[in-house]
Design a protein that fits this description.
With 111 residues, the chain is mainly beta. 0% of the residues lie in helices and 45% in strands. The strands form three sheets. A four-stranded antiparallel beta sheet has the order 2-4-7-6, with no helix packed on it. Strand 6 and strand 7 form a beta hairpin.
């Protein structure tokens, strides 16, 4: 919850390899398939450094640029909640839900 003096961190430039997804409401859920890269940037006015909790294995997060990147692997299916915060007092943390699912099977027509 934010007070009058707090503003939430913003999630900008969220995208999967195959399409662009903009998350304007942090309660929304991002979706990624196994072996599909998902990346986004966390931004906030006055933030100089970020931190993260709940970072999945094989995911990376640049604490200066606020850049998150992850290519989920098999066995990581499910919903992941990752929380981002900053050093700026006026910015409240934001939690991002990411649903990881298996990619659809590719059908090859041998006719």
């Amino acid at each position: 919850m934010t007070t009058d003096k707090e503003a939430p961190l913003n999630l900008v430039d969220a995208k999967a390899e195959s399409d662009l997804v903009l998350l304007t409401d942090p309660t929304e859920q991002l979706s990624a398939a196994v072996d599909q890269r998902l990346s986004f940037t966390i931004a906030g006015e006055g933030a100089r450094r970020f931190n993260v909790s709940g970072l999945p294995r094989h995911a990376t997060f640049d604490v200066i640029e606020g850049r998150f990147s992850w290519r989920p692997r098999e066995g990581q299916e499910g919903v992941w909640v990752i929380t981002f915060a900053s050093d700026a007092e006026m910015l409240s943390p934001v939690s991002v839900r990411i649903h990881v699912h298996r990619a659809p099977a590719k059908v090859i027509d041998l006719r």
